[in-house]
Amino acid sequence: MHYLYIYIMNPSKPTYLRIYDEIKLLIRNQTYKPGDLLPTEQELAKTFSASRPTVAKALKLLCNEKMVRRRAGFGTQVLPPGKSALTAGLLIPRLHKTEIFEPICAGIIETAHESGMQIIRPPELGLELDPALLAEQLTERFIEAKVHGVFFTPIEHIPDQEEFNLEIIRRLTRKGIRVVLLDRDVYAWPRQTPYDLIGIDNIEAGYIMARHLLGNGCKQLAFVSAANPAMTVQLRRIGSHEALVQSDQSAQSLKDFTFLPDDPEKTARQLLTAKTDGILCANDATAAPLLRALLDLGADIPHKLQVCGFDDVKYASLLSVPLSSYRQPCKDIGKAAARVMLNRIKFPDSPALRVSLNGQLVIRNSSCGPIKGS
Questions:
Q1: Of 205, 307, 349, 357, which sits 20 to 30 A from 296 (CA to CA)?
Q2: What pTM was computed for the model?
Q3: How far is it between the farthest Cα atoms of the chain?
């Protein structure tokens, strides 16, 4: 039963990485000690309901990290921990609540493996704990484990969030642990912390999406977000507004609407009353229920009203009217973050890097129609 824990917690991960994560955890917590033999490939394949080649792929990753040694006719033996192996932890408390972080982590793990860096992904990341409490617990765990680096996504929507996140970073850096930020900074834009940060340019993303709607002939744009939006959302709004300023419709303003998760119909009615014809949603999680509410109220999408989101989550293409969205290059963000971490560990005094990757506008039915002259 113990083998199935992470397998169940992370069903979206590739099977070989689930097996790799679980075996590594069992080695790290001393369930299997140096010198012990792991179960055979056949036994592991049965435990995880996986093929033997899939199990072999997971074991090969452990071999590459010098955690185990495999010998024909003997088996797979756990090795003593190597003193020189690089380790880094994932401090992403909302990992399982925000879809983009799973593929980002997959990119980190893949590139780290290739470079011999071990990624620690504690099972607590999947639990329904308070994000701030979980962040503090993981920070202590990483300090105790003496990791070389931590990938950190600053926590939002908590009291004194700026100071809280800065203190997490201070505690890590005082112990010589390097920090690479994912997705967002600690400070509100345009201030920047002196730490490496990997993500997309959210201002550009908002600009591209708004230009798309304006190009379709939309005249009155609205930006819809939840109350107290995340900084990444605010940046998307800034980009959307800039697209309007640079267009021939510069006299018009970008109207803001607050999305009510418990009452999407109320927000939909407000948008229809305002005669909005182009809606930019803060993310797909907002766009999906709003789109449904608009359709239920009789909105003619996309002929007279168009809707776009951000992130291009898995269900965006499966909605009754498939959703146009700005796709983040999640796996590439993870790969870039791993390379930046390796560079930060090797050259700790080098200037901080800000890496902004380009996303992709994915046009679907929700904004693909004849608004132009309607």
A1: 205
A2: 0.77
A3: 77
* pLDDT per residue as tens digits for the range 306-339: 999 999 988 999 999 999 999 999 999 999 999 9
Q: Cα dihedral sign for 130, 136, 141, 147?
A: positive
Does residue 87 carry a pLDDT above 50?
yes
Contacts of 273 (CB under 8 A, 6+ apart): none
Q: From CA 211, how far away is CA 243, in angstroms rounded?
A: 6
* CA 312 from centre of chain: 12
How far apart, in whole angstroms, are the C-alpha atoms of residue 14 and residue 310? 24
Cβ-in-10-Å burial (0-12, 13-18, 19+) of 159 comes to: exposed
Contact present, 19 and 50 (Cβ < 8 Å): yes
For 214-270, give the DSSP string.
Answer: HHTT--SEEEEEESS--HHHHHHHHHHHHHHHHSTTTTS--EEEEE-TT-HHHHHHH
Q: Is the peptide bond before 190 cis (omega within 30 degrees of 0)?
A: yes
In the sheet that holds 149-152, the strands lie side by side as 117-120, 86-91, 149-152, 178-182, 196-200, 354-357
Q: Alpha-carbon distance 205 to 211, whole Å?
A: 10
- Amino acid identity, position 3: Y
In the structure encoding, which two tokens stand for residue 255, read together? 């109207």
User: Are 207 and 129 in contact, with CB atoms under 8 Å apart?
Assistant: no
Q: Is 83 a residue whose pLDDT tops 70?
A: no
Identify the sign of the CA torsion 201, 203, 206, 210: negative
Q: Strand 68-71 vs strand 75-78: parallel, antiparallel, or unpaired?
A: antiparallel
Contacts of 266 (CB under 8 A, 6+ apart): 260
